[in-house]
From TrEMBL:
PANTHER family, sorted: ATP/GTP-BINDING PROTEIN-RELATED, GLIDING MOTILITY PROTEIN MGLA
Keywords carried by this UniProt record: GTP-binding, Hydrolase, Nucleotide-binding
Domain of life: Bacteria
Designated name of the protein: ATP/GTP-binding protein
Length: 196
């Protein structure tokens, strides 16, 4: 069956049309992107994780990544319906520098990015923030609060990450649906404000 042309009736019925928004979930290696998408997706998430091997030990720095045995080698994908009209398609990018070439394709059509950061490894977030800014994507920072990590004031994080005053910062636990949803809602509200 072919597609039909858009009619005047479609224009008047557009309140029923769902809006699909592509959102990137990005961050450095082992910050919780796969976990975040798995927590939030209403469908079984697509994961491209592979077991880490000795061959990659000299490439992937496992310092501070307790129990990390797999890594994303292409992308993660999930879907989340926020309302009758808004559906988010969540695309998780690999965090290692060697996968940067996939970012260009992943950023096409994306409305914005949620950057996950580990408060104990903030310096690893700089290359990720640089890439997101290079591709011109608006973003929010979500501090993935790992067990045993101290809370840091937003002002301290903003200064350490050299963020603009309007860049949203929110804390989440990528394993927790409620706090992860709050992080996504923070990003969506920020994107809406920018379009007004």
């Amino acid at each position: 069956m072919g597609s039909r042309p858009v009619s005047d009736d479609d224009v008047y019925l557009n309140d029923a049309v769902q809006i699909a928004a592509k959102i990137l979930v990005v961050g450095h290696f082992a910050v919780g992107k796969t976990t975040f998408i798995g927590t939030m997706s209403e469908i079984p998430p697509l994961r491209t994780e592979e077991r880490m091997t000795q061959a990659g030990a000299h490439v992937d720095d496992l310092m501070g990544t307790r129990g990390k045995t797999t890594t994303t080698v292409a992308m993660d994908f999930g879907r989340l319906t926020l309302s009758d009209r808004l559906v988010l398609y969540l695309f998780g990018t690999p965090g290692q520098e060697r996968f940067v070439q996939v970012w260009e394709d992943m950023t096409r059509g994306a409305l914005g990015a949620l950057i996950l950061v580990d408060p104990e490894r903030l310096k690893e977030s700089f290359p990720v923030i640089d890439l997101v800014e290079h591709y011109g994507l608006p973003y929010a920072i979500s501090v993935n609060h790992f067990a045993g990590t101290p809370d840091r004031p937003d002002e301290e994080l903003r200064e350490a990450l050299d963020l603009l005053p309007e860049t949203p910062i929110v804390t989440c636990d990528a394993r927790d649906e409620k706090s992860s949803a709050n992080a996504l809602i923070t990003l969506v509200r920020y994107l809406q404000e920018r379009t007004r």
